Amino acid sequence: MILGALSASDDPYLLSHVYPIGSRVNNRGHLEIGGCDAVELAYEFGTPAYVVSEDDLRARARAYTRGLAARNPDCDVLFASKAFPCTAVYRVLAEEGLACDVASGGELALALRGGFDPARIYLHGNAKSVEELEFALDAGVGHIVLDSLHDVERLEQVVAARAAGAGSGFIQDVLIRITPDVSGNTHAAISTGQADSKFGFGLADAPLAIERIAGSPHLRLVGLHCHIGSQLLELDPFIRAVTALATLGDYDVYNLGGGLGVAYVEAQEPPSIAGYVTTLANTAHAALGPGKRVLIEPGRSLVANSTVTLYTVQTVKRNVSTWVAVDGGMSDNLRPMLYGARYEAAVAGRMLERHMEICHLAGKHCESGDVIIRDIPLASPVPGDIIVTPATGAYGYAMANNYNGVPRPPVIFCKDGDARLVVRRETYDDLMGRDVE
Prior knowledge:
TIM Barrel; eight-stranded parallel beta barrel; 12 helices; 21 strands
């Protein structure tokens, strides 16, 4: 568990560690997030809706920044922003002193709008376009992470043209992404460290890339980067990845990526943030030597448990199974359909009820696969009930889509009993906003 989380069995008014820090059940039996009654939030803002505890975001950010700095003072924590690319989230994490990892021109634009210093932004991507590279240079992005020899050549051409036009010797700082042939126990779609990967240079190919960049008058190689996957619940793969980097020479900067897993169901007990950063720092000292600048890129573990999604039950159908259909689904949480991801759920207005019925929580979309959770116990659901699914901060909003013409949900920040809308709900007019008549 993280930050002193309690099990719901310890106190019926406290919730398990899958919910945002500080969540509770109030004396009406309703879920509270950031001091706000979830049922009242649903009535005020409508459903589906992403509800974020701002205190949770800040607490996890501080656990990372303070934890790593205590063990390796020359460090930086980067928000892997693909996990929750929402301007308000960027803004909070920029305020907490994090740097930022972006994987596209769009994420770069959001990070800048959210207040990140461009010098502390790192641009990733296995297929960066000329336009994205030019945007990064225009913005003053501090570091670009190179993923292939074509990536090296493209960036070199863009920087050379810019230097020639300005009549200056501009040099861009870069890292290269290494695929260390290390994979963790996770879904194949989010495993990235194996040798046969679309990302990075393998250990055998990396020396050629290092030599190529060393010969460039326009690029300066400052260090190595690796990222072996996501939702990893064991620390050993991280140790093996850092050790593999040590075979490629001595550098000042090592970006060790992210990937720490989170609890989506109460039975999951991922390593703590403190345990994770301690393991990385100790391994870096032992394998890479003292005095290195160590960077890490948490995304999921910063934001996943900060957020819940609220739905309204539309129908309850009993045939072979009990099907509880809500007003969202694969348009606001695609992970169960993409990865078979498992979540918890509850009736937000009857959190203390003990009589449960095993149900399939289904979405509203015209796909048989649009099932959010199968075989989930729910408190005798009826139409109009508010359903909550916790741990939806990572890749819920990021992957939201308009399948079946469904407008994307709003994002609501909650803190100290106050709720504020930070992203409005889309409208039907928004669906047609890009049409050219």
